[in-house]
Amino acid sequence: MTRRLAAAMLIAAIAATPAWPETAPGPTPTPTPAPSPCANRAFPMLGFWAGGWNAQGDAAPVIAARSHAGKRNGGCTILQNWIRSNDTRGSSQSI
Known about the structure:
Helix content is 16%, strand content 32%. The chain is an alpha+beta fold. The chain is rod-shaped and about 110 Å long.
């Protein structure tokens, strides 16, 4: 009789156990990256400088230099690289 009682208690315990979920939980949401510390300040005012262009002299429509500027360091700085027609190069960084 004790075996029957133990078996009945085991069956009752199994029946009371919650069932496994039918579907797996969804993926963990990707956290939103923090905004750049320069996003809400005066730094965006230099955004007009970003891009590429050719520099020409007044006397002749010959390209004297090529320049390209882009935002760096989370938009906190602008880096400009240029190359003259005689192959001299340079760069500047605006903060």
